[in-house]
Amino acid sequence: MILNHLWGLYTHPKEEWQVIDERHESYFYSLSHIAIISLIPVLMSYYSAAHLGWSIGVGDIIKLTKNSAMLMSIGMYFGLMTGVVALAVLIHELAKAFDSSPTYTQSLELAAYTATPLFMVGFAAFYPVLWFVMFVGLIGLTYSVYLLYAGTPILMHIPEGKGFIYASTVVTCGLVLLAILMAASVILWSMGMGPVYVG
Questions:
Q1: What is the pTM of this model?
Q2: 146 and 13 in contact (C-beta within 8 Å)?
Q3: In this structure, are residues 40 and 77 in contact, taking their beta carbons and an 8 Å threshold?
Q4: Is 91 helix (H, G, I), strand (E, B) or coil?
Q5: In 95-159, alpha helices (H)
Q6: pLDDT above 60 for 169
Q7: DSSP string, 145-189
Q8: Which residues pair with residue 53 across a beta bridge?
């Protein structure tokens, strides 16, 4: 089952990382995991933007047209997938500086399972109030970072001390990658691909 590690990553993460390391499913398996998990924030965001409307604390509820919400969701899906694969490439390339030689599958596993709690935050869009989604997002981000620190020494087969520095480097590169994706979104919006609001 593609999502069989999900429960373990929440209840006993270190032991689950050991299980992931022992099994090492195929590259396609990890890609399938992230392809399915990425649907959560995409579908929830579409539903909340097109049907529920967002509250940013003041003023009227903000809604997008269904076509606009659909286009934004499709873009979000490919952005999330691209982001995780790019993070996996960064993990793989950075490993060389830490005397580790992971396969691309190991690198994608680390990226995919680390991103999972962050993508699960998508369920918060059922209550589309900005402060609430930001709060839940902070919790998801914190747990994703924890999973990265816990899983890096195990999957990369390096000592914990070196794994901490490696994971910190990955977090920094991940933030840069996030900034690049956000900048790309702004550029696309300025080219006329931005949201269309319901009047």
A1: 0.89
A2: yes
A3: no
A4: helix
A5: 104-120, 130-156
A6: yes
A7: HHHHHHHHHHHHT--HHHHHHHHHHHHHHHHHHHHHHHHHHHHHI
A8: none
